[in-house]
Specification:
Elements (H helix, E strand, L loop, with lengths): L7 E5 L4 H11 L6 E5 L5 E5 L7 E5 L6 H17 L4 E6 L18 H12 L3 E5 L14 E4 L2 H12 L3 E5 L5 H10 L3 E9 L5 E7 L6 E9 L3 H12 L4 E9 L3 H9 L2 E7 L12 E4 L2 H13 L13
Parallel strand pairs: 1-4, 4-5, 5-6, 6-7, 8-9, 8-11, 11-12, 12-13, 13-14
Antiparallel strand pairs: 2-3, 9-10
């Protein structure tokens, strides 16, 4: 049976309540009652306002800006849920923060995404539900089950109408090649790869392009963007190589004011993204947002009833 049981509870943190409401609506339930407040000194207080003893609890909280506050709030929610005798607590993290710190690429630096995984597990998470992690290896940072979902089914349906036949999917750096390959296959499009060099935290140089983009519609695909540095660097190289039209598809849109200004001044016609994080606070007519609430809603339902999530792991719309 695909019906929710009486012991099902779904709660939202304060990071992105709009997405949580959409997920609850998809499931046909109300969000659980919870109090989340701050003391005058900034400390966070959490109290579940209904009994969750023996329950199957789901907490929705992307760890986006302000990352540290949202992470701490999530950890406190987890601790409160376990101390309230919840049978199982699954954390749905539409956007997993600190994911870019996934390896020790310099001397004397942390692997913060592994630290966050340890903190979530220690706080009481029994299962993690995430989408388009920055690196697949992050799944291995956890000693608990992790269901890694993809936004591709949502993107592909929309992009097939926008791309046309003469299209190329572009990986703006080596880290996004696998992602670009999946979209290339789903969209029946060509594939191009750009080599980039990061000059500082907000600037990138794209130096080489492998693939034919002349006269074609190009789709730059990546998991996240904040300052648009990688996108704009790729866009400039693509235009130089004769690209006819450029679109970008980004799973997690974390754009700053600098990033929005760069996007508006660029030749990128549209940036397609998801609602995994709250809407961009700066006006930008080029942003098109698609909802991932149905994907998370269906995943939560299948986890609760013990169903298979394999079809939701499909990286295309087949």
């Amino acid at each position: 049976m695909d019906t929710l049981k009486k012991d099902f509870f779904i709660f939202s943190g304060t990071a992105h309540p709009e997405l949580s409401k959409k997920i609850a609506k998809y499931l046909g339930v109300e969000l659980g009652k919870i109090k989340i407040e701050k003391f005058p000194d900034g400390e966070i207080f959490v109290q579940f306002l209904e009994s969750i003893r023996g329950g199957d609890v789901f907490i929705i909280q992307p760890t986006c800006y302000p990352s540290n506050n949202n992470i701490m709030e999530l950890l406190i929610m987890l601790d409160a849920a376990k101390r309230a005798s919840a049978e199982r607590v699954t954390v749905a993290i539409p956007y997993y923060g600190y994911a870019r710190q996934d390896r020790k690429d310099k001397p004397r630096v942390p692997i913060t995404s592994k630290l966050l995984a340890d903190l979530l597990t220690s706080a009481g998470a029994d299962r993690i539900l995430a989408m388009d992690l920055h690196a697949d290896q992050i799944v291995g940072f956890f000693d608990i089950p992790v269901d890694h979902l993809y936004a591709a089914p949502v993107f592909v349906q929309y992009l097939k109408k926008r791309m046309g036949k003469n299209a190329v999917v572009v990986a703006p750096d080596s880290g996004s090649v696998k992602m670009a390959q999946r979209y290339s296959s789903s969209l029946n499009a060509g594939l191009a790869v750009i080599a980039k060099r990061r000059t500082n935290a907000v600037s990138v140089e794209s130096s080489h392009l492998v693939g034919d983009v002349e006269g074609k519609t190009c789709l730059i695909i990546d998991d996240l963007t904040s300052t648009s540095g990688t996108l704009i660097s790729a866009e400039k190289l693509l235009k130089k190589q004769g690209a006819k039209k450029i679109i970008a598809a980004i799973s997690h849109c974390l754009l700053t004011e600098l990033g929005v200004n760069r996007l508006l001044e660029s030749d990128i016609e549209e940036l397609v993204t998801t609602d995994s994080v709250p809407p961009c606070p700066f006006d930008c007519s080029k942003i098109k947002t698609l909802s991932v609430a149905p994907i998370f809603g269906e995943s939560i339902k299948k986890i609760h009833i013990g169903g298979s999530l394999s079809t939701l792991f499909d990286k295309d719309d087949n």
